[in-house]
Automatic annotation (TrEMBL):
Pfam families: DUF3493. The keyword Membrane applies. Keywords: Membrane, Transmembrane, Transmembrane helix. This is Protein LOW PSII ACCUMULATION 1, chloroplastic. The keyword Protein biosynthesis does not apply. It comes from Chenopodium quinoa. It comes from the Eukaryota.
Amino acid sequence: SSTAKIRSEVLTPFRSVRMFFYLAFMASGGLGTLIAVTQLIGALANPFRADEVPEILKGLGIDVAAVSIFAFLYSRENKAKNAQIARLSREENLSNLKVRIVDQKTIPISSLRGIARLVILAGPGSFIAESYKLSEPFTERLVERGVLVVPFATDGELPTFEFDESEDMKDLTSKRKRLWQLLPFNISEWSKWIDEQKKLANVSSDSPVYMSLRMDGRVRGSGVGYPPWNAFVAQLPPVKGLWSGLLDGMDGRV
């Protein structure tokens, strides 16, 4: 999309300049090759110019090598550009997906940029339920790091999250509810996006997966199986305090 292309230019502002020079050098080398071939034909056809052949061949070899090198560099740069645009397009599609805050309004994921680090879970209800249980010891630290979970039950059997409403657990329960307050909205769109990600990653359609997003909405990492809550806690900086703004872009690779 045009937005993805613009973001790609912003992220790699000198790529277009490099690609332009690669093309210019290829054109220059191609012209040199054409001239050298013409000279070589003339030298081979004229016995009196036979001593020029080695020098012409040397120049021809340099031109061909230059064209080959810059063609390789251009091809590599173009592949990187296309891969980046494809990734940004997928992230743009993700940002347009909507979530529903429990018993409240529906918002697009893009509105959470700079506010939360989303962890998307996609799997059967049993996978969601177990992920919920495994997150409990890390609840407070996950909330401190701005983590919000989006559970997507691929079998349509989203479990009912049980919270301890006792007075002693009031503070922890409040944070548990905050951590698990989001639900996917428009299930068909979510299912389509998740299936596309699995195909691109060569993951079977029935495998439970997790995807974690950075504060800016970009995909930080993903994997098959339960999310590594302990790794999130270890690698992500708190969203409040001295280091929050400085380390927002250093979200680790989990």
